[in-house]
Fold:
Amino acid sequence: MIELKENTVMTHKRVYSRRATLSLKMSEFEVPPMQDLLVIGRKAPIGPEAVRRMAEALSPEQFTIIRLEHPKVEAVLLRTSLLQMLDKEILINIILEEAERMISDTMVIRSEINIEISVQREVELS
Structure:
């Protein structure tokens, strides 16, 4: 809260705020396998290429495989539309930060992700 002294005038021409809120739900890989993303461990029973082919067969051109240099995670299969909403590096860093707390290098984790973009603008009325 800002307290204004007597005879003080605040002149703000424009205030702009833009934020993204992410919500992730993770569980172990099951059938049917497709949600928004899969985190594939380095020694998982199904590798990135097989996951890519499976995704292509079930949902053509809807998913992108991103190979990683990570001690536990070999790749992430991601719904392509998510990459249009948020920068790839930001998204992958958040996914890895949360997934590495629960993944072993032999697991495949599926996850649902919701990205909500919130934009708030203020303009001066004339």
Summary: The two ends are 25 Å apart (CA to CA). The longest helix spans residues 88-99.
